[in-house]
Amino acid sequence: MGEFDLIDRIRARATTRDDVVLGIGDDAAILEPPPGKQLVVTADTLNAGVHFPEATRAEDIGWKTLAVNLSDLAAMGAQPAWCTLSLSLPGSDPKWLDGFLDGFLELASRHGIAIVGGDTTRGPLSLGVTAMGFVEPGRALRRDGARVGDDIWVTGALGDAAAALQSLFAGAALDRTLRARLDRPTPRVEAGRRLVGLANACIDVSDGLLADLGHICARSNVGAEIGLDALPASPALQRFSPAMRQAWQAAGGDDYELCFTARQELRDEIAAAMGGVAVTRIGSIVTGQGVRALDADGNEWRPPRTGYTHFE
Amino acid sequence: MGEFDLIDRIRARATTRDDVVLGIGDDAAILEPPPGKQLVVTADTLNAGVHFPEATRAEDIGWKTLAVNLSDLAAMGAQPAWCTLSLSLPGSDPKWLDGFLDGFLELASRHGIAIVGGDTTRGPLSLGVTAMGFVEPGRALRRDGARVGDDIWVTGALGDAAAALQSLFAGAALDRTLRARLDRPTPRVEAGRRLVGLANACIDVSDGLLADLGHICARSNVGAEIGLDALPASPALQRFSPAMRQAWQAAGGDDYELCFTARQELRDEIAAAMGGVAVTRIGSIVTGQGVRALDADGNEWRPPRTGYTHFE
């Protein structure tokens, strides 16, 4: 298969939307933004061996490539609409591409997001997406809105992806549900939509809770205190020792849960509004700067590292 | 420098626009599309050793990364507005990044396009852009509008980039103007804007004239005949033998000129409308399918290859 066969293969399988005037197959796509909305745009690239283990199945790479981008839209409270997909592939492998599209398009159809363009080049395996969505004007969830006294919340459970990754590296037997959390993270799109008008600040947990909550603090010019014991753990994670588990929960990356802050008066409203997604209060926004994680005795806990960062 | 230092370095230098509500630094950007316009979106990635020689200067890589994306917006007749930039870098090299940004931002400022987001990852050198622009509803230049009897036109001159690339590979001395055409292509943004309402179909010449004009023919369900002798050549290209020159002009890629079709009655209007950009009539749209290139004797000429395609 040549480049254009690959593109045709993607086009043949990609679903479209009424607001896509012209999709894949021209120099660019033509789209109709809805009147009266703001456009939310994010871009994330996954590289083999950096963002996923080389041995990851094509289906799972496809899912995760879109999931990490949808997670960024979710953290803004945006409704997904369109994306571009840039594939850099070491060779032409229709079977791999079909598997990749299986995973990518399965998640895309759940959120009604259409691939409208992109490109296909030869090179080391790398998958780039730019995702676009909409939000009501002035209502996006940002990092800079946290206020002293706010509760700090997270959706779902933390630490599963880090546990899976570390088990893989160690060659240990790996629980299937943990592996699924690493390979097929759930972007909290619906939860993010429901937080519009409720949350003061929001971010997705991709680099690790302490690091990501630290971004909220830095942009909002506040500090945060969280309780290690309050961090939500999945049943699978509870089988690990507290020390390992808490390090993964507080500092592990790749969970793609939402961490958000909200006024204390909204506790009941938030618990009721989330539509089946679990939410847990884990701490408070305080004056000062930086994030302090406290153990059961009230002592400050410091992680072995505070989140994944490239180039260090 | 870590990942966040790299991002801060980009943010510190990136210019913004009034319609950027929130730019680099959150989970996603928030943008205000202008009312009553359609959004035009394109994505192109450049990989080291595939899309540019490994030895290319950082400044030139920066320029070209944006130029190839602006060229796609130009081919739609769109006005550039915003872009995301995904950098995959083998290491953290502030000097390289500054050079890259010098070239990228020099071209960005000429066209008023703002970087609104993106990401920075570790990996083999690869530069991905998704560019966004606007066009009046229903007025975008597409590939599918060519009509039998249309003139076929190109902007500027063809073959320079291919001549430069082949000379580089051959280790031959290289004319400075040819090298500049390879490293610093001029996206024909203003020409594309002026063609709105005049051209029936348009594409940018990135894979080679015959291949790209072939895309117009396929999408418009027509054929094309062009005269080899009519293809515009720069003074630098005219120093090569006709056989080499014509192969580069007809089948070489990377020129980023616009190839467009228009009704014959519009010849004078088009010549007058282009604002200093040279345009040359090179042939006609005919019934049938495919592109026929005719030499001075009226014989069909076939290129050694019909344009660059990955995976073949």
Automatic annotation (TrEMBL), chains A, B:
SUPFAM superfamilies assigned: PurM C-terminal domain-like, PurM N-terminal domain-like
Pathway: Cofactor biosynthesis; thiamine diphosphate biosynthesis; thiamine diphosphate from thiamine phosphate: step 1/1
Gene Ontology molecular function, alphabetical: ATP binding; magnesium ion binding; thiamine-phosphate kinase activity
Keywords associated with the record: ATP-binding, Kinase, Magnesium, Metal-binding, Nucleotide-binding, Thiamine biosynthesis, Transferase
Record-annotated PurM-like C-terminal domain positions: 147-292
Family: Belongs to the thiamine-monophosphate kinase family.
Domain PurM-like N-terminal: 25-135
Protein name: Thiamine-monophosphate kinase
Positions annotated to bind Mg(2+) 4: 27, 42, 72
Binding positions (substrate): 51, 254, 308
A Pfam entry, by short name: AIRS_C
CDD domains: ThiL
Positions annotated to bind Mg(2+) 1: 44, 119
Binding-site residues for Mg(2+) 5, renumbered to this chain: 207
EC number: 2.7.4.16
Residues annotated as binding Mg(2+) 3: 27, 72, 204
Entry binding sites for ATP: 118-119, 143, 206
Other known facts: Reaction mechanism of ThiL seems to utilize a direct, inline transfer of the gamma-phosphate of ATP to TMP rather than a phosphorylated enzyme intermediate.
Chain's role: Catalyzes the ATP-dependent phosphorylation of thiamine-monophosphate (TMP) to form thiamine-pyrophosphate (TPP), the active form of vitamin B1.
Enzymatic reactions: thiamine phosphate + ATP = thiamine diphosphate + ADP
GO BP term (any one): thiamine diphosphate biosynthetic process
Binding locations of Mg(2+) 2: 44, 72
